Amino acid sequence: MDMLEALGLALVDALLAVLLLVVGLLPEPLAAPFEYGFMQRALLTSVLVGTVCGMLSCYVVLKRWSLLGDAISHAVLPGVAVAYLLGWPFFIGAFITGALTSLGIGAIERHTRIKSDAAMGLMFTAAFALGIVIISKIASSTHLMHILFGNVLGVQHSALLLTLVSGIVAFLVVWLFYRPLLLYTFDPLQAQALGFRTGAIHYGLILLLTLTIVASLETVGIILVVAMLITPGATAHLLTERLTTMMLLSIGVGVISAVVGLYLSFFFDVASGGAIVLVATGLFLIALLLAPRHGLLARWWRRRSVPTLPGA
Fold this sequence. Notes:
Blueprint: H1 2-23, H2 28-31, H3 37-62, H4 66-75, H5 77-86, H6 90-111, H7 116-136, H8 142-149, H9 157-176, H10 178-186, H11 188-193, H12 198-215, H13 217-228, H14 231-237, H15 243-268, H16 272-290, H17 296-305
Helix pairs in contact: 3-9, 3-12, 3-14, 3-15, 4-6, 4-7, 4-13, 5-6, 5-7, 6-7, 6-12, 8-13, 9-12, 13-16, 14-15, 14-16, 15-16
Organism: Alkalilimnicola ehrlichii (strain ATCC BAA-1101 / DSM 17681 / MLHE-1)
Keywords: Ion transport, Iron, Iron transport, Membrane, Transmembrane, Transmembrane helix, Transport
Subcellular location: Cell membrane; Membrane
């Protein structure tokens, strides 16, 4: 384990060195913030979060799982609080409660007459309430507030390594199972008819989302991570119909939001997580207005171009 951790930290150092080379090519005003070590780690972490969340965001949007992302992000709170009390790494407690909540939602949906939206709402509000009750009994909750709202400027090597490992896992899973995921996303019945185990794909994708959310806790925080799992994919969905292109655009939106939000956070001394999400929202609004086929201006122009029949 120590050898694997040492290899992981060496990989993190190598990525930071590559990042510094890229930063060195920037003009002085843009490169100046990254003279500090905490800004270098924040930039690498933000880019990793923007990339992974951007990729998975496509599945969340196409499967209409926005409420599920919200449910998982809130459900990890009691796990974080219990891990804090027991002195465990936050990742372990958060992943356990996130996974249990996801499986609970699936079990209620499959074995009762309750629909998925009600099951999600039931589970995530109960888990979030449990987390609030536990936190209210903890004397010092300063660090837990960082988990709630994010602290990308305070990311340490261990959190950066966790984000990197979860990102590698997410990319490997999507790359290896791209076709089953594609079929399951657009036509689950056809995927089942072709012999794919749709139940395993369903729960596997949920666990992958849980892993990504947990790994993003210390950057954008529990409350805002759900935005990074929805907004980039929604923006890309306005611009294209193809999943591969949508993923590339969504990753681009995630990375641009992370980098620009980090600059805004540094120069204007505002919360980093909130700045990143607001930039992503701004990009969505631009796409909503200007998208070639699905934008508001394009729709207005098509309606205006339809000829009016005489006497109509």
